[in-house]
Protein 1
Amino acid sequence: MQAVQPAAQSSTPVLMFPALSMLRSERSLIGVHILVSLVALSLGLLMGPFQTFRRAPAVTEALGGQAVAMPIFTYYYQALTLHGVLNALVFTTFFIVGFSYFITQRSLQRPMWSLRAAWVAFVLMLVGLLLAAYAIITNQANVLYTFYAPMVAHWTFYLGLTLVIVGTWVAFLNIVMTYLGWRKDHPGQAVPLAVFATLCNYVMWFTATLGVATQVLTMMLPLSLGIIRTTDPQVTRILFWFFGHPLVYFWLIPAYISWYTMLPKQIGGRLFSDQMARVAFLMLMIFSVPVGVHHLFVDPGVSEFAKISHSLLTFVVAVPSFLTAFNLAATLERAGHQRGANALSWIWKQPWGNPVVAAQFCGMLLFVVGGITGVMNASFSLNLALHNTTWVVGHFHMTLAGAVTLTYIGVLYWLLPMMRGRKLFMPKLALAQVFLWFSGMIVFGAGMGRAGIEGAIRRTDMGGAGAYISDLWAPWLNLSAIGGALLLVSSILLYVVLVGTWFASKGQAEVEAPIDTTGPASSRPEWFERWGVWTAVIVISNVIMWGPVLIQAIDVVNGFFVPGNPGPAGPGF
Amino acid sequence: MHIDRLEKYWIVIVAAVLGAFFASLLAAMLVFGLRLPSLPAEFVNPLALSETRFASPGLRDMGDGNYELTLTSLMWRFNTGSSERDADGNDIIRVPRGSRVTFFVTSADVTHGLMVERHNLNIQVIPGHVGRGTIVFNEPGEYKILCHEYCGAGHHRMHATIIVE
């Protein structure tokens, strides 16, 4: 291994990373994760716009009364399952695991604790993905990505998801061990912010996945295999949403890592407050789990008291995002002033022409909309009008498909050139892709949001025979289809740029990895890294917030009485 | 730990705004009587609905403009006990203007949802549990009862109609 040299102060090897390219071991490990995530995304993205076309009455009318057919997977709910599973679970998870290896190795300037464990984790996740994909593609898992009982998919769907999660646990272990090795060699130093945030993210993820793992292993998987015959749908929903809300923060934190630790370098500035960033990540780690009942506001088996208290903590978990808004705005303002901007012009005197930066700015703008609509959803009074309407779909497309995905695209626009050692292919086209995505998503979100206020229901094949569409929804569903068309064009451009960078780009790479290798020279770094204390806080808060919810939902008289129905196997079911 | 002066003001503003939101939620519940479809739990055995009130769904007149509507969700229709049907075979219920209707709903098979167009009634219909909610129909017109949770291949055609006369 030509790049490994013994460090002066310790026995651990220190990796010397090239600035503009990747080590071979690094490139292959991170490359396979990114490759799988992008293949999944390509199919998942394709399913999105066609749903908007199929739901739009104007499109159906223009085609003489025949709604648009979904591409490849013509059954709407199969396409919808693919859209959710591939975009929200597969693209994100593979991208995040690959990206966190990159961050960990580069920030700590040392190899992962075990390269073999990293590959074991990847193989587990890949096998899991293939198993779940088999079930979905063969029409045996049309259960959407929330798979509510007692609808049952083919057992390979659940086993596949389990393997993906177990793979992320192995990745978590690997990152923790790498951190502990670094910790031993660097007493008294604060860990770089990006790694601190990555650790927070995996601690939260591990906590959350215990819920869905319990649900899948004790209820759904045995049910799908015929080992047990009945289950309790309310309990499965509670376990799922123990996991489901932290899931969205699992996607978000890597985007925050890019905004907090990489964007300042990319705009030629410095982060305003490292300490407040750490406070934000700690709050996300602790408060993102005991809030999940806000997905169950209209569930009959959950008490009003639990709903009120989870609503309160949902407002608390909004605080780190408000802190982030302040910290990043201050960072941007200071960088703008250094460039000679005044009190307002710092907003546009930024490198908006750089697709890497523009993607993150656009993501932030969409996140403002996503954050505000999120606080509205957290209000159980408004939720009565909005639950399971297309409003919710509009909301989480501002966060997941907006802030998260646009930031990941921004990352890909420097990470992929670095991996390949070539320049980004057609940067102007990449910039157009970013702005098209932003416009498409805001138009789509406005349409879905307004239709939802009028009562349009989500996850519904409105182009299907016998579907009801109110006249009040129609104009807004049509608007969302315009957004869908813009997003389809943007998605095509995205793959032109990505594939072009890999195969057709000519010049040498020139963007360095925007990675910090040291933490701040703070006087008391240990304060943030007391993981034992944080673990105790997480355990206690969740026992208090979730324990009673789970116990009250269980029907002690009748028991687990609902039989598992066979999964809806295609349109005939 | 150092916190910038302006950031301290920001934190106070954020806390005040979120606090006001939460206070208004509590007021909605305590002052204005908002209720969520919640516990106290009413469990039913979904395999033996014929032994419960859901054996005979229907609209019951409780007097003084109060009604109770007992209905079951099943793939893919609402069984409201009404004999009136639309062209697609979906149930139609009629209530007088100003009626105050309390819904009791459960599922006979998978997880469903229930919402009434342009009214604040929204219930997750879960096998084994009774969802409950009350709304008042002040405006004459036709309102759809919609299933808002994906429940299989016929989900999109699962609805019923309430006609307020």
Protein 2
Amino acid sequence: MISFFAILLFLGGIWGLIWLSRESYLFRRRLIRYLVVAYPALLLLSVPLLYLAPEAKIDIDRQEAVIQMQESSSIFKQAIQQGQLPSDKEILGWRQVL
Amino acid sequence: MMYLTEPNLKSVVWKQYVCKLKSLSGIFPSLMVVQVLSFALSLGGTGSSGTGYGGVSIHVRYFSGELISQFTFWWAIIVGFWLTIKNYRETDFFFVTNRLASHLSTIVLLLTASLYAGITVPLLGFFLRLVVYWRNMNVILNDVAPSPDELLMSLLVTAGYAALFSCLGYAAGMLFQLSEVMFSILLGTYIGLSFTPATSEFIQNVHRFYNAESSVLLFTMKVALTLCLVYAFIIFLTNRLEVRR
């Protein structure tokens, strides 16, 4: 439901820009007039471009490695808190993952 | 008695608003400059952390639009304060006007500027994501595209905060115009209370009233209520001032 409102808002933003370009006589100087309309219009373009970003760019292998590193790090922290350092075998295991 | 033209508050406020938008349109390019500057600063990352053990080291760099928001909120405070400067206030009296109409037109202008800031800040944040995404080819990003909910919430929250900060700047400016001594006492009291251990918690609770709110609807209501109260107080306080002070 919120997504529906957000899409409506996005469309409303485009409508607002069109309205702003028509009512831009409210701004005194021509440069300011163009800037006020062009600036949000250019920024608005980045939203669909973000959606078009290919999923392939997300490096799955590296992502896995980072998740494992985070897990290893939390195990390591827990071990230190409990006064037990991880074994060399475990540490070697992490290095092999990386 | 009959007049050729019957001015009413609504038309006077609208005419003043249009005039102020024309004559003070410089506030919009100034916002853009502030945002572009903060955007450039954000490109290097807004924070980092690192950890290491043996031959393994992890370095994490954070990118966020936080800096853009902070710069914009400072801009909102300055704009609010700036509009209370004598030269700008006195231009209102070229029109048939009173204090109420003058305040209302300035408030509408501040709300327009806040809305504009509320639209541009999240959009610039998304643009930052896009730039970071294409600049760092090996960067790992799970959610590149913002969800529509995120867009909607960012817009409402940023506009709300910008309106709140510009209101704060306007209130501070009006108090300063009214009595420099009173303004100094209030500012000093606020800073003093913030740094005194006994009262700092109270000040933090006041801040939490806004920034710890998880519901956007409640946050919007809180902001609207605060704006109404503060602006009403300022109008009440300065309504009986002589025409030019």
